[in-house]
Amino acid sequence: MSPERPPLLLLPGLLCDHAAWAATAAGLPQYDCRVPEWGLLDTLDAMAEHVLASTAEPRFALAGHSMGGRVALEVVRRAPHRVTHLALLDTGYQALPNGEAAEKERAGRATLLARAREAGMRAMGQVWATGMVHPDQLGTPLFDTILDMIERSHPDQFAAQIHALLGRPDATSLLGDVRCPTLVLCARQDTWSPLARHEVMAALIPDSVLHVVEHSGHMSPMERPQDVADAVRTWLARPESGAAAPDASKVGRA
Q1: Which residue from 53, 68, 73, 162 lies 20 to 30 Å from 170 (Cα-Cα)?
Q2: Where would I find the AB hydrolase-1 domain in this sequence (predicted)?
């Protein structure tokens, strides 16, 4: 690999593939952008091990969207020395909650999986993806692209990734140990992984930068690829060592 194009691993979320990152990656031609496939891997641990095992370079920049952000944190947990920069987009860090909230999540995901098996992935996606984008995107070619992406997956892959998310580890204690330049990015209208969660996450990661993408839902790398690419480019320009000046857009609460 040419040193002029350093590796940038772009980890996709639930039922996402290369299409989730394609438009953002197109705005980053100076980087060797790679999007792994999860196949039937059914734990975040296994996904993180897959990323590490399939990346030949000793060091790389790492960005994860949604479930991919959780995988990125597990990569950092295992091999912090290999990650030069970390970006967490429209994601989370806590384990499955206890009690009624957990049962509600399990039931909701089981209902979607049942629909996928009975009516097909695209029919399930039409229900699920409606809440994943800004309302202005409904019925647009972009929404059709998202449905096409979902349809490329199989219900067994959906089941495996649901299993991974329901068994997600808590990464709260890890956040304070992150030492590489970190971007925490969230769309203003992301109702799936809301901004308030990212404010807390940014406050817990030393010297992180919080960036808010306007007029976008959860699928920010597809909905606002130029805004995301610009934020990623600025993040990658931060030096690996030494503290950067605090960013004025960072809003946090302990």
Answers
A1: 53
A2: 42-225
Residues 243-253 have a mean pLDDT of: 34
Give all strands of the β-sheet with 32-34 in edge-to-edge order: 32-34, 7-11, 60-65, 83-89, 182-187, 209-213
Q: Which residue has the tokens 């967490």?
A: 88
* Total-model pTM: 0.92
**Percent of the chain beyond pLDDT 70?**
93
For helices 141-151 and 18-26, the axis angle rounded to 10 degrees is 140
Other beta carbons within 10 angstroms of residue 199's beta carbon come to 18
Count other C-beta atoms under 10 Å from residue 205's C-beta. 23
**Cα(10)–Cα(253) distance, rounded to whole angstroms?**
28
Asked if 62 and 7 touch (Cβ cutoff 8 Å), the reply is no
pLDDT of the residue at 3: 52
